[in-house]
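User: I'm curious whether this sequence folds into something compact or stays loose and floppy. Could you predict its structure so I can see for myself?
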Amino acid sequence: MPEVLSKPSAESTLLELDERLKGRPKICSDCGLCGSSLRPLMAQSCTFVQNHVAEVELRLHGRTRQPGDELLFGIYREMYAARIPKPPSNAQWTGIVTTLGAKLLEQGLVEGVLTTRAVPGTRFAPQPFLARTPEEVRASAGNKPCISPGLSLLDEAQALGLKRLAFIGTGCQVQMLRALEPRLDFTKLYVIGIPCSDNVAYPDQLRFLKIISRSPATIVHQEFMQDFRLWMRHEDGKVEKVNFVDFPMDKIGDIFPPSCLACFDYPNALADLTIGYMGAPFGWQWLMVRTTLGAELFNLIKPDLEFTPLTVGGNRREGVSRYVGMLAKKPGRPPALIRKFVAFLQRWKGAKGLEFARSIIEMKLLRNLQYLRQNFPTHEGKIVPYHVYEALEPYAPAYRQAFGREMEEEKRKGE
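Assistant: Here's the prediction. I'll summarize afterward.
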């Protein structure tokens, strides 16, 4: 058994990003691996050193991705829109993730659930912890949209002799966990993935809400929603909504860590079961069953769920093509009347349902590919997954026009 190193302190996630990641590589998501006894395996496991998507997919599925939605969503067996009819009061959505984690412990399928709760006294600062009771899992409900060192507690789980573990985490954490998995001493490892888009350091989260909201101190939950608005639910139950196009980017600045801008796994494609919301109608959650263990997890939670059909609306191609052109320009904010009209068009004619999820993922892939090329050009051949270029092929003409270069230029150099 590995010796347990010092647990990540609550204070570590309260630090400014530069202070927190001091002395580490410039692209670091603070997954927690470097704070554990597994640190010597970092170079072979870190997705920002070398991407392992293809080899993990072969291990999990016996194949890599097929053309179509798998290029964007990852390999999956089944896809659903579902919800828990009477969600817990502290849930971000309908409570599927925490209810599932609690059920795994209640039925003795696992001995611990490695998840994230809020640092005491905060709502959004993340604190990884190893839950041993259903009550501990349920108490962790709610989104913490900040980078978190979740893998640091693998030591504790192994030192306690746990053989059956569930892990709830983001895409970068899951990619590194999967790369490590053959070296870990677990007989059963359930991986529940949360789609993740642009986490921030906790102080930046507070600054962002202070700029965006009329009452930042009373925000209970916040999420970037399918109607192109940020929804912020307050203590009194009221929901404040701000159009994406109205964000004052000149005031917000560059708050996203390089790791989020160099990530290509919004849908958490290497999980057993992915639970999010982007591809589902309003008020529902989006579930993708990916593996045999994912099917076990889904069947465990299925009796608690009600279902609705997945929907598709609008056409994303034109909007995403325009977005490519925007990437080549200096960020700015149009006048108020134009912003109001743009927001109206987005809600009226914009992509909806699965088409919305496709558009968001494509825009993240495009943005992050360009970020790497501008800031870390030597990294592209190592950390851009194999499927990205094929997924973005429909936008090659728009990319060529905007940037004067080929979409797959760097890929060819790395071959």
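Summary: Residues 1-6, 411-415 have pLDDT under 50 and may be disordered. The chain is about 35% helix and 15% strand.
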